[in-house]
Write a structure and sequence with these properties.
The structure holds 2 protein chains of 2 kinds. Chain A is an all-beta fold. Chain A is about 0% helix and about 50% strand. The chains are: A mainly beta, B mainly beta. At the A-B interface, strand 4, strand 5 and strand 9 of A face strand 5, strand 9 and strand 10 of B.
C-alpha cells in the first residue's frame, strides 16, 4: 500500500483481556518499528524488526508485551492481561532498511483504551 | 531526567509570526536530528532532518543543531493556520537500527 496501515484504529478492552494490534508496512520496507505514545508525551520505542527477526526489543515494558513478524511484512503487537496503564496510542513505522535514518514512515496508530 | 527535553507548550501565535521551537538533549552520541509534525489523531510525519551540527533550510522551515550546547531548534517563518500541530523533535545515534528518542512535543496553534 501507499502508507503504513494500522488496524484497528481504536480498541477498547477490559482490564485483564488480551489484545492484538496489526501493522501493515509499506511494501518492500524491511525495517519495522513499534512505538507507544501516551497522552501528552512523545513516542517511546518498543521494538524493531529487521526482516522477520526482532533485532531490538529493549523497549518492551514487561513480558506481557510481545510482537511478531513471521513473514517479514505484517507485524502484530500482542498484549496479555491488559492493565489501565497500557492505555496509549500504539504507533507502527516502517523504513526501507534499518540504515535509513530519514526513511521512517509512521502509521496513524491504534488508540488502545483499557477500562 | 529525560534524554530529550522539550517544552510542551501550548504555544499560540498570530498568523505570519516567526515561530521558534527547541529541544535540549543529554546524550552526546546523538548525531542525527529530526523534526516531526503530528496532527491530531495522526502519526508523526518527517518535516526536517539534519546530520551533526549546522543549519538546514527548506522553504519556510529552518532547522539548527548546536552539538556543543546539545541544543536543536526549528524556526517557522510566515506561520500559517495549517501549521497548527504538535512538533516533535527526535534524534538517534545512527546505530542499532536507528531507534528514535523523541521529545515530549510542543503544541502550536497559529491563529488568524
Amino acid at each position: 500500500g501507499a502508507g503504513v496501515s494500522q488496524t484497528p484504529s481504536n480498541k477498547v478492552t477490559e482490564k485483564g483481556k488480551y489484545v492484538e494490534l496489526r501493522c501493515d508496512p509499506i511494501s518492500g520496507h524491511t525495517a519495522l518499528y513499534w512505538y507507544r505514545q501516551s497522552l501528552g508525551q512523545g513516542p517511546e520505542f518498543l521494538i524493531y524488526f529487521q526482516g522477520t527477526g526482532a533485532a531490538d526489543d529493549s523497549g518492551l515494558p514487561n513480558d506481557r508485551f510481545f510482537a511478531v513478524r513471521p513473514e517479514g511484512s505484517v507485524s502484530t503487537l500482542k498484549i496479555q492481561r491488559t492493565e489501565r496503564g497500557d492505555s496509549a496510542v500504539y504507533l507502527c513505522a516502517s523504513s526501507p532498511t534499518e540504515a535509513s535514518v530519514w526513511g521512517y514512515t509512521f502509521g496513524s496508530g491504534t488508540r488502545l483504551t483499557v477500562v | 531526567q529525560k534524554e530529550v527535553e522539550q517544552d510542551p507548550g501550548p504555544l499560540s501565535v498570530p498568523e505570519g509570526a516567526i515561530v521558534s521551537l527547541n529541544c535540549t538533549y543529554s546524550n552526546s552520541a546523538f548525531q542525527y536530528f529530526m523534526w516531526y509534525r503530528q496532527y491530531s489523531r495522526k502519526g508523526p510525519e518527517l518535516l526536517m532532518y539534519t546530520y551533526s551540527s549546522g543549519n538546514k533550510e527548506d522553504g519556510r522551515f529552518t532547522a539548527q543543531v548546536d552539538k556543543s550546547s546539545k541544543y536543536i531548534s526549528l524556526f517557522i517563518r510566515d506561520s500559517q493556520p495549517s501549521d497548527s500541530a504538535t512538533y516533535l523533535c527526535a534524534m538517534t545515534g545512527g546505530g542499532g537500527g536507528n531507534k528514535l528518542t523523541f521529545g515530549t512535543g510542543t503544541q502550536l496553534k497559529v491563529e488568524l
